[in-house]
Amino acid sequence: MFSLLPYNTFGLEVQADAGVVVRSRHDLQLPLADPYLIIGRGSDVLFTDDFAGTALIAGVRGIEVQHTGRSFEVRVGAGEILDELIVTLLQQGITGLENLSAIPGTVGAAPIQNIGAYGVEIGDYITSVEAVDLRSGQYVILSREECCFGYRDSYFKQHKEEKLFVLYVNLSFPDRFIPHLTYQGLKDKELKDAQAVRAEVMALRARKLPDPRFVGNAGSFFKNPVVDKNTVERLRAQWPDMPVFTAGKDRYKLAAGWLIDKADCRGITHGHAGTWEHQALVLVNRGQAKPHEIVSLGKYICTEVAHKFGVELVPEVRLYGRYGEVEWNSL
Ligand SMILES: Cc1cc2nc3c(=O)[nH]c(=O)nc-3n(C[C@H](O)[C@H](O)[C@H](O)COP(=O)(O)OP(=O)(O)OC[C@H]3O[C@@H](n4cnc5c(N)ncnc54)[C@H](O)[C@@H]3O)c2cc1C
């Protein structure tokens, strides 16, 4: 058996039948026997059960930097830790990812859900992603356009059946600092350089989010729901202070954390699972939580929010059961 405890930031005591750390494509013995799953650090995953198959751990290392005169072109192994990459880049004067500071997890997982924070998404800097198609063994390179990045979305999520194992991520950065300070919390601050932005982002995050080393969690458990104008008008009539953000033509993003808070679910505890006192969108393991306790708390929150606002919450975290990925509605 292979413990998945170091590979899930919820800190759940779950196991896989076997595990392989993939340091190069040659570690992938294709074709693979079903079932298998790909995992980085498990900071966007909830294991709902032990896994009856092989866990493929992203372990490709290496950071190659080229200065082309106007930009820095960077090729990074999927197993590198994103925050360590940000530190390495900043030490070399390469800026762009500082707003994503302190997001846990690997570089290879970053394009999967197009991670984002404080007004920046990783897809803004990705030029291409190199991967192996685990079914055919073919090496594929997806351009930024082919990655189809959207809000917490990408080609990799839209085409899960293709089983692409990301090996390298290629990024491009301008050779001067371009600040992204439009986000509430950053815009009123005097932040002169990327190091100052990183420090501020880390301070903001530390105030709001639990550190998974001490409190098991997977960040935002639910996505911010995207709704139409009628829904916004209906809700604003009753809750005029409800935060609303534009999300494309006639689409509006609501703050899931606000909805959960107003549905009286902030800081609650169910068994050994709970919601974080400072950010209701984060579900936490209060100690010895079992997977089913996290699931049942998530279901309770969905019911309360649907009852109060008529809005459906959908998990941002990926759910893996005994034989592979599972849908929230099937649990
Ligand atoms: C405290 C906390 C704060 C967070 N804050 C943010 C935030 O601000 N913004 C944000 O966007 N996310 C945030 N997250 C979520 C998470 O950190 C990111 O989604 C991160 O990219 C996940 O990296 P990982 O290596 O842990 O991936 P995992 O959780 O291991 O995997 C996530 C998904 O990617 C797939 N995957 C992983 N590696 C590969 C690979 N090499 N090839 C193909 N598929 C792969 C897995 O199969 C899985 O479906 C937060 C999480 C925590 C715990």
Helix and strand layout, with pairings?
Blueprint: E1 2-3, E2 15-22, E3 36-39, E4 45-47, E5 51-58, E6 63-67, E7 71-77, H1 82-91, E8 116-117, E9 120-121, E10 126-133, E11 139-143, H2 144-147, H3 155-158, E12 164-174, H4 194-208, E13 216-220, E14 226-227, H5 229-238, E15 244-246, E16 252-254, H6 256-262, E17 269-270, E18 273-276, E19 279-285, H7 291-309, E20 318-321, E21 324-325
Parallel strand pairs: 2-5, 3-5, 4-20
Antiparallel strand pairs: 1-2, 6-7, 7-12, 8-9, 10-11, 10-12, 13-19, 14-16, 15-16, 17-18, 18-19, 20-21
The structure holds flavin-adenine dinucleotide.
Flavin-adenine dinucleotide (FAD) binds next to strand 3, strand 8, strand 12 and strand 13.
Q: What strand order characterises the main sheet?
A: 6-7-12-10-11
CATH class of the largest domain: Alpha Beta
User: Can you give the helix content as a percent range?
Assistant: 10-25%
What is the global morphology?
globular
Distance between the termini: 25 Å
* Percentage of residues in DSSP E strands: 25-35%
The CATH architecture of the largest domain is 2-Layer Sandwich
Q: Mean of residue pLDDT?
A: 96
Number of helices: 7
How many E strands? Answer: 21
Within the CATH hierarchy, at the fold level, what is the topology of the largest domain? Uridine Diphospho-n-acetylenolpyruvylglucosamine Reductase, domain 3
What are the segments in which pLDDT stays under 50 over at least 5 consecutive residues?
none
Instruction: Please compute the radius of gyration using only Cα atoms.
Output: 20 Å
Structural class determined from secondary elements = alpha+beta
